[in-house]
Design brief:
homodimer; alpha+beta; NADH Oxidase; 5 strands
């Protein structure tokens, strides 16, 4: 169950229902076709000058890419992320082929991953993004060009049984989702 | 009309239909309530450790915040963006109150703005994000704390008549939307 959030205004269900669980089904299997719509959604997000400075490494549980991403995770993430059906590394192109810095690349990657996550929600999947991983180690494992960097990684799969989580995480999984009030989100100009 | 894109996989309509026009209705008026669901969607996006390092300045056409954002725009943007119903400055909190750098803030702001844009599409609105503006000038006009920075700005409104655009932009408005193929998006691990 998604812990129910408070909403000042009704929002589109895939945006309202998106959340970042830790309890993934250990047995659910994803195929590349299952994830096609998610990457297609990521592909069509907005970017500065349509530069599309994003790319992705897709690992399915049991394959080498999954192992490489899992091996880069902080222990606190690996303990639950190992059970997800897929692990994805989210890559930004920080420098163009001509050597020009793309200062917007990380921002645009965030947009692309947000699109991925919304489409995943539509597909009945859940996504949990993580910053706790060794970006240098993973970049080396993926043999990334120095112009590229892994900015975040994410789990994809379906909800599993929270009872299978370590006790501390089990409690966290049941906490209500929280956000700052809208009055602290729109901070200048017209206010709510 | 949205120029129709090619899709390898079907995606959720608000993701497929989102695009960034320049021809805005000169007369359409937005209220804060009209934009409430968009900011609510932005509010509920994902962020590292739920830090929510985003905030927004909302200007409605004719008010001081609109004028401040418009005044910061590059001329090539101002020529069409001046007619939008709203201008929004998208702000990242780059440093915490404790002085700690938030390296993920720009990425998370990108996610939040993506959520805003998807909800706007659901509301029948169109959003066009821009990097072509003077961030220092706008930050000063908004009296931002040095821990915060405007990373992007965006127009919000409804589609207008492309015939009202300058000729060069009119042609661009009718071009089909393009993206790299999916094979250049998922570049490592399982491929498409």
């Amino acid at each position: 169950m998604t812990p129910t959030p408070d909403h000042s205004f009704d929002i589109h269900p895939p945006l309202a229902d998106r959340w970042s669980p830790r309890a993934y089904s250990h047995t659910h299997v994803l195929t590349k076709d299952d994830l096609g719509p998610c990457f297609e959604a990521a592909r069509w997000s907005a970017s500065s000058g349509n530069s599309q400075p994003w790319s992705f490494a897709l690992g399915l549980r049991g394959d080498d890419t999954f192992a490489a991403i899992l091996g880069s995770l902080a222990e606190g993430n690996a303990v639950w992320a190992q059970h997800a059906s897929a692990l994805v590394a989210n890559i930004a192109q920080l420098t163009t082929a001509e050597g020009k810095s793309q200062s917007h690349a990380v921002y645009d990657l965030g947009q692309s991953v947000a699109h991925f996550s919304v489409q995943a929600t539509v597909e009945g999947l859940v996504v949990h993004q993580m910053g706790g991983f060794d970006a240098d180690q993973l970049g080396a494992a993926l043999q990334l060009d120095p112009s590229h960097a892994v900015i975040s990684v994410m789990t994809v799969g379906v909800i599993g049984d929270p009872a299978e989580l370590p006790e501390k995480l089990r409690e966290r999984e049941a906490l209500p989702r929280m956000r700052k009030p809208l009055s602290d989100v729109v901070t200048h100009g017209v206010r709510y």
